[in-house]
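#struct-help
A.M.: can someone run this one for me? Single chain, 214 residues.
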Amino acid sequence: MAYTLPPLPYSYAALEPHFDAETMEIHHSRHHQTYVNNLNAALAPHADLSALAVDDLVGKLASVPEPARRAVRNQGGGHANHSFFWRGLKVGTELKAGSRLRAAIESTFGSEEAFRKEFEAKATSVFGSGWAWLVLRGGKLAVVTTKDQDSPLMGEEVVGEAAGWPVLGLDVWEHAYYLKYRNKRPDYIKAFWSVVNWEEAEKRFEQGGQAGKL
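D.P.: on it. Structure tokens below:
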């Protein structure tokens, strides 16, 4: 079974003016599609692996035959990360008062504002290409970063202390923002708060609890 590009649950222009339509179209239909194509090519000799959900695939890198492992890490990571990223974007949601996720954020970071500042600092500090994440790890929330297309789902053996259950993620590769924000990555990161799908983040947080991540 080949992997496919997931359709977006909104139009390319839906996140304007924060994330522009041109960037969204190129990012989704070209960059993400390329990861899908390359992953399928790498796994052509391994039909058993292609049957796995992509999150399960990247979480089992050690079981991937060595000739395909690097491609699965890079291309599979790109597919998994972007699929997660699209679901995490939506205009008009908020971190609800009284929600378990808000309580956990306030318990861990002191306040939503303090969390945002730490997330922005970590995302800005990524050298070159990578991602910033809010993850559940060892029963606690943490802000972490990964390089290239590494995913927290890949585990400690691959990503070290960045391992965890993703709740929120932000792509800080230049292709995610350069058409609109040029070299001003911090402006792009701040714009992210206007399009965070907190409903999805809360769902991921609850799923993490059900999966024993809390």
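A.M.: thanks! The CA atoms of residues 27 and 176 lie 6 Å apart.
D.P.: also worth noting: The first helix runs from residue 21 to 42.
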